[in-house]
Amino acid sequence: MSSPSPEDIARRIRPAMTKLYVMYFRIAEQSDLTGPQLSIMTRLQENGPSRISQIAREEGIRMPTASNALHQLEQRGLVERLRDTSDRRGVRVRLTVQGSDELARVGEERIQYLAEMLSSLNEEQLRAADEITDVINALAESYGGQHLLKPEAS
């Protein structure tokens, strides 16, 4: 028996992933931070202070979108802008202590939401889910933001 192709796997899993994504974020909407805002905050926590252009590139979004999201986070005291010491004209954005605390709180909340969804599985399914977590994490790591923006037509 031959191995399934990436297209075969995608065809089988895409509808379920879409359904789970929608259900998960409906439950998680109780937080007033959006998924993209949380992603930016997580990136700042992992990478430290960053330029807006770097955040936009890594998130796979355009500069105005990144700037708008960061402005909203700044208004709430979750991030702050600081002068770039290597280029006085440049600005970097960093997570504040309040932002770090909020990121941890919302992260724990969302872990509980996902755990609740996973608790509907039987023991065998939970073992299978445990085994595939490394694959899901590897896919998320290798995918990053590099495929989010469609390449320009040549």
Automatic annotation (TrEMBL):
Pfam families: MarR. Keywords: DNA-binding, Transcription, Transcription regulation. GO terms for molecular function: DNA binding; DNA-binding transcription factor activity. Residues 6-141 form the HTH marR-type domain. This is DNA-binding transcriptional regulator, MarR family. It comes from Corynebacterium spheniscorum.
